[in-house]
Design brief:
With 784 residues, the protein is of the alpha+beta class. The protein has 15 helices and 38 strands. Helix content is 23%, strand content 33%. The N terminus is likely disordered.
């Protein structure tokens, strides 16, 4: 780990609580408002308590045509000596329609009931008090669920199964099934004392970087494509594939992947000829009938005139992006910016706890401006929180460039809990711009990534491993340059339909099918006509309703339609909460037996299994998603304060592989500290026609002034120390054109004081007359 950080020239920012400041540090921790933040898991020394009750997660998937039916089995066992309540937070597909749950204890199986959320919670809490085993499944986000299992007695094995279905919509002929495995840590600045119960799930324990999951993971996927499968592969895990004829296949994890539950499972396959399953599916129910139309769009024609455009690139440089995600973001954005034409305009906004803008208005995509943007992006290392909303607001407020078409691109792992607020902001302020979200990481927040793109009339892209960025960049450029189908309309001639979703169809930017859900009545007759404008001229596709037979295997259509309707209602509620919409979501959840924000599944055993004594609640610790570092949790003094108030260990010992410094209590030292300011041992980075020595000579003259900034900061926080990295761009005249902190001491006043000193510096003029980018590390320390 340390060698990797050194190779990346990343500067660790230690804030050490030294012996002479233990008392004042304790006071500052107590005064700090605890926020909803994840924290590192610390295993108890109590031998009677099992803090790892989840033993395994196994998944069975059956894909028939374009519908996936998924059964997830979680096994809990209490290996301690005290009754437990286990709480486990886990993800699911953003398109999942969860329609069933059951709990098995020994030979008894209890089928869960769908109830209004508060009623289900009350029933669960009552059963827990009465000593009955019970399980509760709640939706915290459309892609984040929480399972509570109460009264797991010593040596108990309790199995909970949940079932969901989802629709697979191919892109450019490739089908993709994704099973998310772990919820990444969510940054939150919401005070814990004021947080509603629905947000408490953010406050969850995590294992440290590189530690494998404490439970096993297994998944098997059976594909019945209905037509020959051209190729099938898993890009995330090592698998073994068995074919049963040309159109059926079984994909299993190999034994070495039993601890692979720290990254999304991604299965992709193509059909012969890159065909897309296109046609009409019908289901006749006892009370209602449902249909689903999936229509393949025309082929893309790329030889079209592309008008001048404006691009706003928003890049997440927070702590959870450190390492592979940020490196991939750099590659991706450099590639995208490098592909712009001189007639295009662009801007770059970097955000973590705060944001930094390349220019107050978008600049032409000239070679010089592109090089300036690449310099800015290339200096980023990753650190701090994730203030997504403020970054979005700043980007939306930028003046438009000559009223040309604006496209906003954001690269993030999505580890925030403000998804709804972000959608609201995009819908209300984005106007006529397209919004493309790049999710980068092994287990990104797909609800946020996909939702932002939907809200902004764009599309989402997910990059899960190094090497995908270049291909995704090319794909993105192709998408935005030439839409496949526009001005789309659907006519139902002689076919009686109602409750159709979506009510209007947006432009198709990729070669993916047009999908329409709905209900139908009466006899099967008439035709459905899909019309639109393609690059080559008018387009029309016709479907004969009378020639299609309703099938019982299409029963999931009722769940898929209801889930889509619920999602649409939920999106509207994001803009402005409405009690009537909430009631309609609740009604749909209860009527169609679906998990929603307002309905939950609860299963309660009839037997009283615990006569007396208390039940101990434990939160199942989650692994950090593969590639996410410890910097994603508890960064800075505020994270330390929160963890100390919980009585938890904030950071690893000094000698740990993570490379973190230790925090330790010691005797109070009353004597005022003597401080030292010097260039850090980490190498100074200079890119351009200036020498490191010439930069060093100018910067060293500022050390005495920087010492004053440091002494002033110590008056407020006596234990402050560490290394900062100052990044700046020197213009052709030797003056500073832009400056920012790559990393600071988590003290905004101190950081700003140092930046102000840099503003007026004068360096030698670069001989080639071009800009020079610099990252200069400075260490501030207390001499004992």
């Amino acid at each position: 780990m340390k060698q990797a950080l050194k190779g990346m020239q990343v500067i660790l920012l230690p804030l050490l609580v030294l012996s002479w400041c233990a008392a004042s540090a304790a006071e500052s921790f107590e005064d700090t408002e605890k926020t909803l933040s994840p924290y590192f898991f610390v295993k108890s020394d109590d031998p009677t308590l099992d803090q790892l009750p989840l033993k395994s997660t196994s998944v069975k998937v059956i894909i028939a045509g374009v519908i996936a039916d998924v059964r997830v089995t979680q096994v809990y066992k209490n290996e301690g000596k005290r009754p437990l309540e286990a709480i486990y937070t886990f993800p699911a597909s953003t398109r999942a329609a969860v329609y069933g749950m059951q709990m098995t204890i020994g030979e008894r199986t209890i089928v869960a009931e769908i109830q209004e959320r508060e009623s289900a919670r009350q029933a669960y809490e009552e059963a827990k008090r009465e000593g009955k085993s019970a399980s509760l499944l709640e939706q915290q986000r459309p892609n984040v669920f929480q399972m509570n299992v109460a009264n797991i007695l010593p040596e108990d094995v309790i199995k909970v199964e949940l079932s969901y279905t989802e629709l697979l919509a191919p892109t450019d002929g490739r089908y993709e099934f994704i099973y998310p495995t772990v919820v990444g840590p969510r940054y939150s600045n919401l005070p814990a004392s004021a947080a509603p119960a629905s947000e408490k799930w953010v406050e969850n324990p995590y294992l440290r970087e590189g530690e494998p999951p404490t439970y096993t993971f297994d998944i098997q996927v059976d594909v019945a494509a209905g037509m020959p499968i051209r190729d099938i592969s898993c890009s995330s895990h090592e698998v073994a594939t068995d074919f049963h004829g040309s159109s059926r296949a079984t994909v299993r994890l190999v034994e070495t992947e039993r601890q692979g539950g720290n990254r999304d499972y991604i299965l992709k396959y193509r059909l012969a000829g890159d065909r897309i399953e296109s046609g009409l599916m019908l289901y006749r129910g006892e009370k209602e009938n449902f249909f689903l139309l999936m229509a393949q769009p025309p082929n893309r024609i790329t030889e079209v005139e592309i008008p001048a455009r404006e691009y706003i690139f928003i890049i997440d440089v927070s702590g959870s992006m450190r390492g592979f995600p940020l490196d991939t973001s750099k590659t991706l954005l450099m590639d995208l910016i490098g592909r712009l034409r001189p007639v295009d305009h662009f801007n770059v906004l970097l955000f973590a706890g705060e944001s930094m803008l390349m220019a107050e208005k978008s600049v032409p995509a000239t070679a010089e401006n592109i090089q300036r943007a690449i310099h800015i992006i290339d200096t980023q290392r990753g650190g701090g929180g994730t203030e997504l909303l403020s970054a979005l607001r700043r980007a939306m407020a930028l003046p438009r460039e000559n009223k040309c078409s604006r496209t906003v691109i954001i690269a993030t792992d999505g580890y925030v809990h403000v998804e709804k607020e972000a959608f609201d902001l995009i819908r209300n302020e984005l106007g006529d711009a397209n919004f493309f979200a790049f999710g980068i990481g092994t287990s990104v927040n797909r609800f946020l990534i996909e939702g932002m793109s939907r809200a902004g009339m764009g599309e989402s892209f997910i990059v899960t491993k190094p090497g995908e960025a270049e291909a995704k960049a090319k794909q993105f450029v192709q998408y935005i340059q030439s839409p496949v189908l526009t001005d789309i309309s659907i006519d139902y001639d002689g076919f009686k339909v109602g409750d159709v979703e979506p009510p209007a169809i947006p432009d198709v930017l990729a070669k993916r099918p047009v999908i329409v859900f709905g209900k139908w009545k009466g006899e099967l007759s008439g035709v459905i006509r899909l019309k639109g404008a393609a690059a080559g001229g008018p387009y029309e596709a016709t479907f004969d309703v009378a020639g299609i037979e309703p099938l019982d295997i299409n029963a999931p259509l009722r769940y898929l339609w209801a889930r889509h309707r619920i999602a649409v209602l939920g999106d509207y509620n994001i803009l402005a909460h409405d009690d009537e919409r909430a009631k309609e979501i609740t009604r749909l959840g209860l009527e169609y037996n679906l998990l929603t924000a307002y309905t939950s599944f609860v299963a309660i055993d009839t037997l009283v299994r615990r006569e007396d004594g208390e039940v101990t609640t434990v939160k199942q610790p989650l692994p950090l998603p593969q590639g996410v570092t410890d910097y994603a949790i508890g960064g800075g003094v505020f994270g330390v304060a929160q963890m100390k108030m919980r009585g938890l260990s904030p950071l690893a010992p000094t000698a740990s592989p993570s490379g973190y410094p230790s925090y330790q209590d010691a005797k109070t030292e009353k004597a005022p500290p003597v401080v030292r300011v010097q260039e850090a041992k980490t190498a100074t980075e200079v890119k351009g026609d200036l020498t490191v020595e010439s930069v060093r000579q100018v910067m060293e003259k500022q050390f005495d002034k920087m010492k004053r900034c440091y002494l002033e900061a110590l008056r407020k926080r006596s234990g402050l120390r560490g290394t900062v990295s100052i990044a700046f761009i020197i213009g052709p005249d030797g003056r500073i054109e832009q400056k920012w902190m790559v990393s600071g001491l988590e003290d905004p006043d101190f950081d700003q004081c140092v930046l102000n000193l840099v503003s007026d510096l004068l360096f030698p003029k670069p001989a080639d007359g071009k800009i020079v980018s610099v990252v200069y590390p400075v260490t501030f320390e207390i001499i004992e």
